[in-house]
Known about the structure:
Blueprint: E1 9-12, H1 19-49, H2 56-73, H3 76-82, E2 89-91, H4 92-125, H5 130-133, H6 136-162, E3 171-172, H7 179-185, H8 191-223, H9 228-256, H10 266-287, H11 290-308
Parallel strand pairs: 1-3
Antiparallel strand pairs: 1-2
Amino acid sequence: MANTHNVTEFIFLGLSPNQKVQKLFFVLFLLLYLAVVLGNFLIVLTVMTSRSLGSPMYFFLSYLSFVEISYSSTIAPKLIKDLLAERKAISLWGCMTQLFFMHFFGGTEIFLLTVMAYDRYVAICRPLNYITIMNRQVCAVLVGMAWAGGFVHSFAQILLIFHLPFCGPNVIDHYFCDLLPLLKLACSDTFLIGLLIVANGGTLSVISFVIILASYMVILLHLRTRSSEGRSKALSTCGSHITVVTLFFGPCIFIYLRPSTTLSIDKTVAVFYTVITPLLNPVIYSLRNAEVKKAMKKLWIRTMKLDKK
Length: 309
């Protein structure tokens, strides 16, 4: 360990060197992070307490919201703290831990979104068999497989990075530990490692994205035989999921499906998929879904009644 890792900590350059801009970002990202946690927690609480949201779609949605909270929490608290710090440092082990959990929750989200697309396919294309196919046991297994897939994906990424020698520069031009910025600091040839990272992360994103798009193509073809009312309801439900999928996969594919090079725009794109997308998830699913809005309203009424008592 001592022979390959002379570097014991890394220094982040952060989002901006300007102190006034950093203070502005502190307020902004603190508010955004609180909104991420509160918004997604509200969805989890609503699904858990509402009998009308007992279908598999909302079961998966509650887990997606939990993953969004966890995913953002691996990045945002450290970012917010560093915006007020003169020296933005993280230990080697802290960096590897952050890297592991970011890809663990990110990978889990990829698999969950794929599972949710399959759920919509079964619900719309095989409605008579929906309850039989998507029973509680199957849903639990699919969620378990999503968590396991996220773990395997992240563990593979950590193995690739952890054995690289870090013996010189330790300044990361980013605000969190990620694969490509770390590759630039390694004291060895990282070409093969970069290709393996693309194969693991970028290819996973692309394959999952293609599977999801293919499932919705099949759904759209199937909807041609439905009534206009049924078609409108199905498209409204699927529209929320497609929006979330596009917002999440677009930045991920941009970052991880390219050679091991970093661009100046990477930090801006990273802000989008680490903070903005987790924030938009509850907004999109609540505003575009009448059942979720109705259940939230009932939860609010029940809460107000308890407060009066």
